[in-house]
Amino acid sequence: MPSIDNPSLRVPESNRVGPDFWISEYERACAFLEGVKKGEVWEFGRSAGNRPLIAVAYGEKEPIAGRTSESFSAAGWGGWSTFLGTEPRQKQVFCFVGNIHGIETEGTVAALNLIHLLETGTDLRGRRWDRLLEEARKMRLVFVLHANPDGRVRVQTNNIRDLSPEMHAQLTFGLWKTGETIQ
Predict the structure, then answer these.
(1) 0.85 exceeded by the pTM?
(2) Is 139 helix (H, G, I), strand (E, B) or coil?
(3) Domains in the chain, number
(4) pLDDT of 79-103, one tens digit each?
């Protein structure tokens, strides 16, 4: 059975590099998070491949007045207020998910640049974004850099521009057991 580890499906070495600010690989993102001082970093689960699912949050978590259910799905039986609470929130919450598919890099890069901005006042290129920082501080931000760390580890590229359409499809959707690319 063909697999993504088949040498004919490997990403060319030239596609594995990128500028220093373009951090999207699972391992580099985890190493980056070790330097977070102002945010709260925690593991909220494990992937199918037993990799940590990690979140980072900025801004105080508000208590939810009148909440009686911890589960959104269970709240459907008792009414949404059992999960959402009875009082309006004081701050908006923005949850930023970096990648769902392994080939997706841009979301993780954007999230890490915003985290760096929140930590230091500049993005990973050293640029200031004062208005963005001002607006970000008005809400609670929760980042999930890799919703699919196994897929991101499997796809060893930061440069998808030069991939053939077939390689892009294989890395995005995978292969059927027959070896054909899923479309």
Answers:
(1) no
(2) coil
(3) 1
(4) 777 777 888 888 899 999 988 888 8
Give the range of the structural domain holding residue 110, as residue numbers without chain letter. Answer: 18-64+92-158
Q: Specify whether the CB–CB gap between 105 and 99 falls below 8 A.
A: yes
Q: Output the 3-class SS for 38-77.
A: CCEEEEEEECCCCCEEEEEEECCCCCCCCCCCCCHHHHHH
- The three-state secondary structure class of 113 is helix
Q: Is 44 part of a structural domain of the chain?
A: yes
* CATH number of domain containing 127: 3.40.630.10
> Using one digit for the tens of pLDDT, what is the confidence trace for 25-64?
899 899 999 999 999 999 999 998 999 999 999 999 988 8
How many Å from the N-terminal Cα to the C-terminal Cα in the chain?
18
